[in-house]
What does this fold into?
Amino acid sequence: MASGTIRYWAAAKAAAGTAEEHYEAATLADALDGARERHTGRPDFARVLMRCSFLVDGDPVGKREHDAVRLSEGGTVEVLPPFAGGAA
It folds into this structure.
């Protein structure tokens, strides 16, 4: 399990109600599941996440399965909504 930071941009930041938060997770899927759990009181968060693209330590995740994307200790996950460079 790795510790790091999730950074939210544009609509993802608004939906999360924060610019960044800590993760404790082995994979991107685990980190995003944890974020969804932390933000259950924010109804737009899960919907916005479904449209986002992700960078892990600066590398685009693209179409890779999120459970196959390993996170590194001290790493960074960038959450990008469509108009901030995320998925169309």
User: Anything to note?
Assistant: The mean pLDDT is 93. The beta strands are 2-8, 20-25, 53-56, 59-60, 75-80. The CA atoms of residues 2 and 72 lie 6 Å apart. The chain is about 30% helix and 30% strand.
